[in-house]
Amino acid sequence: MPKDTSIRSVLIIGSGPIIIGQACEFDYSGSQAALSLKEEGIEVSIINSNPATIMTDKVIADHVYLRPLTVASIEEILVERKIDAVLPTMGGQTALNLCVEAEERGIWEKHGVRIIGVDVAAIEKTENREAFRQLMVDIGVGVAPSKIANSFLEGKEAAQQIGYPLVIRPSYTLGGSGGGFVHKKEEFDAALKRGLEASPTHEVLVEKAVLGWKEYELELLRDSNDNVIIICSIENFDPMGIHTGDSITVAPAMTLSDSCYQDMRNQAIKMMRAIGNFAGGCNVQFSVNPDNDDIIAIEINPRVSRSSALASKATGYPIAKIASKLAIGYNLDEIENQITKTTSAYFEPTLDYVIVKVPRWNFDKFKGANMELGLQMKSVGEVMAIGRTFIEALQKACQSLEIGRAGLGADGKHSRNIEDIMHGLEHASWNRLFLIKDAMSMGVPLESIRKVTRIDKWFLSQIQELVFLETELKRYSLNNLPKDFFFNLKQKGFSDIQIAYLLGNVTEDEVYDRRKSLGIRRVYKMVDTCAAEFAAQTPYYYSTFEDENESIPSDKKKVIVLGSGPNRIGQGIEFDYSCVHGLLAAKESGFESIMINCNPETVSTDFNMADKLYFEPVFWEHVREIIELENPIGVIVQLGGQTALKMAEKLHENGIKIIGTSYDNMDIAEDRGRFSDLLKELDIPYPRYGVAENAEEAIVVANEVGYPVLVRPSYVLGGQGMSIVINDEDLEKAVVKLLGDLPGNRVLIDHFLDRAEETESDSISDGDDVHIVGLMEHIEPAGIHSGDSFAVLPPFSLSEKVMNDMETYSKKIARALNVIGLLNIQFAVKDEQVYVIEANPRASRTVPFIAKAYDVPYINIAAKVMLGVNKLKDFNIERKLVGYAIKEPVFSYDKFPEVTKELGPEMKSTGESIRFIKDLEDPYFLKLYKDKSMYLSK
């Protein structure tokens, strides 16, 4: 059936600010759906309150509504604009819940809006735990024994009948919120209370816990002809008991027998057909008994899921893009395969490589948090790696995590405490993968590890092979290392820095040079969805070690944009927004744009965003070899946050051009001593400060500059490791901890301006002119990290003198640092005196917010200035904000009920939303201002 021509305008509901359990994978899906519908000539409107994402940018939709995600906001849009249909399946649980609420209140019917991509009845069947259980029983799909409970009485009765261990699953929640395992009777009451409170309908499913069973996911698509295809099978490395968002996952499934897979596939199709007759995508989760291959269904989500983004990137099959076309009437055989361009979308992708996803946690930001993994998701981001084998992909994923690891071990960061290791194997946390390797290195038998972790023996034997290879490698020196053995190490994912560590007394560069002299180089393979059966037209690559290289460099002028790696607190989706605009600006300026990134959740790693995508770790060895192959005119590091910026020194040392501000000038801004000398020279005030390399020096410095002091390491993002201290004893503890966590670093000690106001400026400089992008005033006082502060654009209470000083200092610093591109400066204002706290010559967390509020494409302008194709005078910049815009930080404390909400110099928010107010009499603003100091802590 061709598309439904009665659908001329569609509203896509977004997922709102980034929280744990619902991150930017839904913004990726929403962006892809919007572009897909626009291709069909459909007018696309988006409602989403998140200013940090590319999804809410004019390059994605025809109309963007940056409004709170409420039924009232939706109705305002429906009054303003004729909307034919709503697509609620791209915005996670938030969008589905909003769609159901609007349906119950008769909003869609009142305005003549159709729901496409899902049935409301299907949402009800899948979200209501009892309805789902009963449906599975009716269609003959296995489920764990369970009972529904709406009260303490019903919950206790259910527990008594089913027996422990139990799992509690609240209805209508996301990311496992409110759920958990109960191993014994004494834990039950507290767990039941948490579940009943978390569910919006105060309903939980009390279910038998199948701990230790294997867990799988299937991603499905169905058209209106009832054709169903399986896009991807995903296997959890971790067994049942850990939320899929916190599990290491592998695609395709590695340890599944063919008969069990066929059975699972048939059951998934039966489940999708049973929940309704809608056309679109869904995600099904199963559990398999490792002893006898018995299968039970865990849940089905009638929307694109967290895993859909991963499955799209894993297969090269753009699930959200195709699902949105199915929603407007097309059948699968009528849609073009986006990769080959010659076959149809009615096929099941075949992978001749392995994908590994590893989550990224930020427990360091939540002091006192329970770090054990369970049913409630706790990770803040993820990385994806592609390799020819599982072990190659796993090592690449470890290199991508941004936690200072060079791969899976072999980097000097192993644990030698056997008690800690065995406890960590039994009680899974963020580092269990590394502890498995450490245990094997210390001789713990594989079977003992399997019994305690319940991880499949095949995965463990793969990791054990690394231990054998390391032992073998230590028999050689670099000069007598046989070529075939060296080649085997590289095929198993060992980085040059790991090999250098294992050999001892050699450097990474020496290993690299030796490898090149032996002719062992990375080659690049295309992600083609069909195991090379058809020629692919899409330039989407991963590296491995083989003979044939499929990435043939063009002779065009090219620019590489370095991505920001996994989302984490302090470095989120706003940097991906900047990277996407950098790619678009490079294309518009006539360059071939090349992206290097490893984050599967984001739009920058969509295969049609850059001219060429390398889905690789933003890790020096990988970046270096791509640069050698492609020979770009330069590399943009300003847009990828601290991840990209940290690469600047290596690029500079190797004579690779950094586009925009030079390495030396960026280093002045990062090095507190050099920067303060510059401020002194420019006659710009700054807080008294000193630098220390140990606790004794720190105490001397602190007494010179005066307490309270702000203590922080050099070269960090998101306030990592920062604290405010008020005496020698606290200072000593803080410094010892910092130097323990970040060895080799220096500690900066600034006098803390107590009760000061905090403000910031963003600007663009082209080397001659400086344009102030925006001045912002924080509602909270100095001492609360800028990322955790409510910030107002333009400032609401600063005097003309203070704002003039901020502008003057911004321009002086931009010129002194010869900034070409972006500059963010943080200020403290006390008694009308403006002090500069820090300057960052890169895209900041706030530029996307300001760009949306003023409706000016600032990153696009900055990228063209960096590339040297434009000067600021070439642009006609007109701000369009009426009233004020407030940046609202959003926290995920509900995932850590044991952590108190305290705010200080270390950032803790996971996302942000934008709110527009007409004036300062707005009751929302007045309440914020009243509560401004409430959560300030050290």
From TrEMBL:
It catalyses: hydrogencarbonate + NH4(+) + 2 ATP = carbamoyl phosphate + 2 ADP + phosphate + 2 H(+); hydrogencarbonate + L-glutamine + 2 ATP + H2O = carbamoyl phosphate + L-glutamate + 2 ADP + phosphate + 2 H(+). GO terms for biological process: glutamine metabolic process; L-arginine biosynthetic process; pyrimidine nucleotide biosynthetic process. GO terms for molecular function: ATP binding; carbamoyl-phosphate synthase (ammonia) activity; carbamoyl-phosphate synthase (glutamine-hydrolyzing) activity; metal ion binding. The keyword Secreted does not apply. Residues 133-328, 676-867 form the ATP-grasp domain. InterPro entries: ATP-grasp (IPR011761), ATP_grasp_subdomain_1 (IPR013815), CarbamoylP_synth_lsu_oligo_sf (IPR036897), CPAse_ATP-bd (IPR005479), CPSase_dom (IPR005483), CPSase_lsu (IPR006275), CPSase_lsu_oligo (IPR005480), CPSase_preATP-grasp (IPR058047). The keyword Magnesium applies. One of its GO terms (cellular component) is cytoplasm. Its cofactor is Mn(2+). Keywords: Amino-acid biosynthesis, Arginine biosynthesis, ATP-binding, Ligase, Magnesium, Manganese, Metal-binding, Nucleotide-binding, Pyrimidine biosynthesis, Repeat. Pathway: Amino-acid biosynthesis; L-arginine biosynthesis; carbamoyl phosphate from bicarbonate: step 1/1; Pyrimidine metabolism; UMP biosynthesis via de novo pathway; (S)-dihydroorotate from bicarbonate: step 1/3. Gene3D superfamilies: 3.40.50.20, ATP-grasp fold, A domain, ATP-grasp fold, B domain, Carbamoyl-phosphate synthetase, large subunit oligomerisation domain. Composed of two chains; the small (or glutamine) chain promotes the hydrolysis of glutamine to ammonia, which is used by the large (or ammonia) chain to synthesize carbamoyl phosphate. Tetramer of heterodimers (alpha,beta)4. Large subunit of the glutamine-dependent carbamoyl phosphate synthetase (CPSase). CPSase catalyzes the formation of carbamoyl phosphate from the ammonia moiety of glutamine, carbonate, and phosphate donated by ATP, constituting the first step of 2 biosynthetic pathways, one leading to arginine and/or urea and the other to pyrimidine nucleotides. Belongs to the CarB family. This is Carbamoyl-phosphate synthase large subunit. The lineage of its organism: Bacteria, Pseudomonadati, Bacteroidota, Sphingobacteriia, Sphingobacteriales.
